[in-house]
Design a protein that fits this description.
Elements: H1 5-18, E1 23-28, H2 35-44, H3 58-62, E2 73-80, E3 95-96, H4 105-123, E4 129-132, H5 140-146, E5 151-152, E6 158-159, E7 167-174, H6 193-197, E8 203-205, E9 208-209, H7 215-221, E10 237-239, H8 243-246, H9 266-269, H10 273-278, H11 281-287, H12 297-308
Parallel strand pairs: 3-10
Antiparallel strand pairs: 1-2, 2-7, 4-7, 5-6, 8-9
């Protein structure tokens, strides 16, 4: 059955919601002209720190047709991960980012996107395309913004008026022509809550983050010793950091996720500072088998805990 680009777009969005995605939007695949000079400037200022991979595939990062030849559309999806139950985040508690409470989102999003892609091929016809969940040089937030799913806030995270910023993003880039959605307005206004709250001054100006100063970078991406200049500024975060999101007024509208895989593991719920300080290889391997935390390995967690240990107590 032949359908037009609008009907096909609606069909895809309906299926995306059926699969559990909170939002789905579509943009036209093409060169990201505005982002090219911004990205180049950001890289030239070494804001990517030791994340050398961010400078790789510059052309592909800006042009999805170099990732999927003949690409016509970018289908962007958002999946809420805001937890119903949160770990203690007092002044003395060791903290991990809420996105790491449950199962690694790469697995969860990929499975849902595969189901969506299979649906497109079955219902609309054979489509050439690829699924992306942090698996290639794709500018997720830019495409989500172009697809009308929200706007990129001053902390550089995507913000949605209805539910804030605690979302995972993913895409299907394909050769199917689809009705595109337009971008939404920026609703940050004069607010500077995220900039004011960042203890390492990583948000160097509105909408620009020096990644090499971010607590998430220190605790996850950086493989060597954390710089001494960060001493006393980590606010006890040992994996990731949610400060700029937690203080954002739009996250007053965050709702608990509906994806059981993202729920706080019961074994993790009762973790104390001592548990983090004394964790063994066996416990680490078992507890974080399918968790984002395994990225740092046990050595990384120990390094992070030891770096901030004097600031904590049980």
């Amino acid at each position: 059955m032949l359908r037009n680009s609008f009907n096909n777009a609606q069909l895809i969005k309906n299926k995306a919601h059926e699969l559990g995605f909170d939002f789905c939007g579509i943009s036209k695949a093409g060169f990201l002209e505005k982002e090219a000079p911004r990205l180049e400037k950001w890289l030239n200022q070494n804001y990517n720190g030791k994340m050398a991979w961010m400078a790789n595939h510059f052309d592909k990062r800006l042009d999805p047709t170099k990732l999927v030849p003949g690409a016509k559309s970018v289908i962007s999806v958002m999946l809420n991960y805001y937890p119903e139950k949160r770990l203690p985040e007092g002044d003395d508690d060791l903290k991990i980012s809420k996105y790491a409470y449950g199962k690694d989102y790469h697995y969860v999003l990929k499975d849902k996107l595969k189901a969506l892609f299979n649906f497109i091929n079955e219902e609309i016809g054979e489509v050439d395309g690829r699924i992306f969940v942090d698996s290639a040089p794709v500018m997720d937030k830019v495409w989500a913004e172009k697809s009308g799913l929200g706007w990129v806030g001053k902390h550089s995270n995507l913000l949605n008026k209805e539910m804030g910023s605690f979302f995972f993003l993913g895409e299907i880039i394909c050769d199917l022509v689809l009705e595109e959605d337009g971008p939404v307005k920026d609703y940050c206004g004069t607010c500077t809550a995220c900039i004011d709250a960042c203890p390492t001054d990583a948000i160097v100006e509105p909408y620009v983050v020096d990644g090499s100063k971010c607590i998430s970078y220190y605790t996850i991406e950086l493989k060597e010793a954390i710089p001494e200049e960060a001493k006393g500024k980590m606010e006890n975060w040992i994996f990731g950091c949610d400060i700029c999101q937690d203080v954002c007024p739009w996250n007053r509208f965050s709702k608990p996720n509906t994806t059981p895989d993202f729920n706080l593991k019961p074994e993790l719920a009762g973790f104390t500072n001592s548990d983090w300080e004394e964790i063994t290889e066996e416990v680490f391997r078992e507890l974080f088998r399918h968790s984002p935390i395994k990225r740092t390995k046990l050595e990384g967690v120990r390094r992070n805990v030891n770096f901030i240990k004097p600031n904590t107590k049980d």
